[in-house]
Amino acid sequence: MKNLLLAALVLMIVSCQEQQKIGYVDNVKIMEDYQEKKDFDARFKIKDEALTKKRDSISQAYQFEAQAFQIKAQKMSQAKAQKEYGEIQQRAQQMGQLLQQEEQVLRSAAQVELDSMVNLVKREIKAYGKANNYAYVLGGGDGGSVLYGVDSNDLTEDIVKILNDKYKKE
After folding, report:
1. What is the pTM of this model?
2. How far is CA 38 from CA 91, 97, 122, 164, in A?
3. How many CB atoms lie within 10 A of CB 66?
4. How far is CA 111 from the centre of its chain?
5. pLDDT of 87 higher than 50
6. Torsion angle of the four alpha carbons 34, 37, 38, 44, in this order, in degrees rounded to the nearest 10
């Protein structure tokens, strides 16, 4: 009888406890559908293409200069030709280094902006979880920890909507 009462008491306590809510988000889908990320990708692509055009233009100018020099070098002494060729190579190398620095600055700035965006997404997911009484919000997608989840526990669309609504207001 005592064991039966104890079992009933334990059963009542367990059933009275609030069920912990668990949700998950697809991290990849959030970043694909987040308008700020789409705008970032478009801006970065334009900047990257501009840098590529600049690099191609400078490379083409260097090739023209090298071809013109080859014709001109035939009429020069070997010492003078070598000196002038060395100067052309040095200018090309300096230009290459400048372009490489521009590319590094672009990539570094892009990474800082992307890291900031990822942190914002994490804060929004955390705020959503707290506001909606979730005990856990797990991350899924590539490399995520959710291999399967019931669709009703997928919070991805809700989070994307919140992020996009806030982004529109900015």
Report:
1. 0.74
2. 38, 30, 17, 11
3. 14
4. 7
5. yes
6. 180
